[in-house]
Amino acid sequence: xxxxxxxxxxxxxxxxxxxxxxxxxxxxxxxxxxxxxxxxxxxxxxxxxxxxxxxxxxxxxxxxxxxxxxxxxxxxxxxxxxxxxxxxxxxxxxxxxxxxxxxxxxxxxxxxxxxxxxxxxxxxxxxxxxxxxxxxxxxxxxxxxxxxxxxxxxxxxxxxxxxxxxxxxxxx
Length: 172
Known about the structure:
mainly alpha
């Protein structure tokens, strides 16, 4: 985890994603959204993880994290749900995307609350299986978000802004 969950790694990943997408692919809005998404994920990790986030993979201490997952797992759930809804609102997503965000968060509720039954009993004692399930879930959710966010959403917003500038005589 020191490589995937460190402050320096997250900041480098955010900067790299922003530069590659905005400068390399010339998709400014998408590049900024992905960069901000990576940084905000770090903020969520600092709120929810226990003391397991390091400043850098080369620095094993101090370990950061407020520990909502352990101390107040339902608070962690609501923080993550609120974050998803906030992102949806900021980027003016579709109702289908909002539905996916809510369902995706509720699908994880059993991981955060022991009274709610879920797949955890099948995963107990198999840490690599847990990591695999979580990784697959992340990839599937990212793909579904990409489909529901739609490339045309960004393009239609850009076309709308360009149309406004042209109609007001300020050019592209």
